[in-house]
Amino acid sequence: MSEPSRSLAPVHVLHDAPLAPLTTFRLGGPALRLVTAETDAEVIDAVREADDDGTPLLIVGGGSNLVIGDKGFEGTALRIATRGVELRGTTLELAAGEVWTDAVARSVEAGLCGIECLAGIPGSAGATPIQNVGAYGQEVSATISEVIAYDRRAGETVALTNEECDFSYRHSRFKADPERYVVLRVRFELEDAGGMSAPVKYAETARVLGVEPGDRVPLARARETVLTLRAGKGMVLDAADHDTWSAGSFFTNPILTEEQFAAFRERVRERLGDGVEPPAYPAGEGRRKTSAAWLIDKAGYTKGYGTGPARISTKHTLALTNRGEATTEDLLTLAREVVAGVRAAFGVTLVNEPVMVGVGL
């Protein structure tokens, strides 16, 4: 594909720049250098400059999936602030820096379905294919037709088809090889269902809507219902609500082999009684997915757990939160306690969903 002309230098550059304000956790130390890029050309220039100099590079979008260490980042943080929305028929193309929640609202206003149940998810459009963002029965992998990205290894802009993105549960080619691609634009192929939603898949959503799974409802009603559900769990950003000072779901739902699930179920019965069955959902041949939130709660880490500045949300056990004065180390101490407790109780190891920068569990 053709390359944008290279500018002499990025326009917006700060040194020893705070990164905490760029994250929904509001945690983390500074970057040696922060570049804000507002065009694809500026993004590519900043990436090339860092790669040519051998400088560590951190890509920052909406900051809703980042846990940055208290020492910060010893390199260049590139904040992608590109803008651009193009709607052609049922094809929606978004610049990577577009606010995801706004894009969902726009698709609903246009009468197109496929991402309406992803309303309220914080972050940028460019992050959605990396994590294969999903909620309430929808995943972006179902509607993404193409991802335009800068391939750092090849030194060129490439277009990756849905199949080439290697999507799976909260995973993709981009997440598997995080140092290779920088997402520039994402194209979605949506559906015109006459103002109706995609078939409702998630049981909770169907129950609140008063319909059966598989039914369709008016698009705006589907979006509003999801926003209400998310807000009730502290999953819609609100600066005044510390339950939303989080990365949303901190852990992914574990996927177990049949053998692992059988051992897990036995641990459940030993701990909770013979009549208790853990949540189980199909996850491909020979595999089952269970609920991380259920595991955390049944291991004794209930809503509001903790006495320090980092605690479990009072609204949802999957969200670890900054109550206003936390450090990243406070957050990680809590996360490690939860991981160890769930493993001791049920023999299942939880895996963090947010990207860790300079730290780990």
Note the main attributes of this structure.
about 350 residues, alpha+beta, disordered N terminus
In short:
This protein is of the alpha+beta class. The chain is 26% helix and 24% strand.
Question: Your description of this structure?
Answer:
By secondary structure, the chain is α+β, with helices and mostly antiparallel strands. The chain has helices spanning 40-53, 100-109, 128-131, 173-176, 203-209, 219-232, 258-272, 292-298, 328-346; strands at 12-18, 30-37, 57-60, 66-68, 73-80, 85-88, 91-95, 112-113, 134-135, 138-139, 144-151, 156-161, 181-189, 191-192, 255-257, 281-282, 287-289, 310-312, 320-322, 355-357. The strands form seven sheets. The protein has a five-stranded antiparallel β-sheet with strand order 6-7-13-11-12. It is globular, with a radius of gyration of 21 Å.
Average predicted confidence as pLDDT: 95
Percentage of residues assigned to helices:
25-40%
What is the string of helix and strand elements? Answer: EEHEEEEEHEHEEEEHEEHHEHEEHEEHE
Main sheet characteristics: 5 strands, antiparallel
Strands ordered across the widest β-sheet: 6-7-13-11-12
- Using the CA coordinates, give the radius of gyration: 21 Å
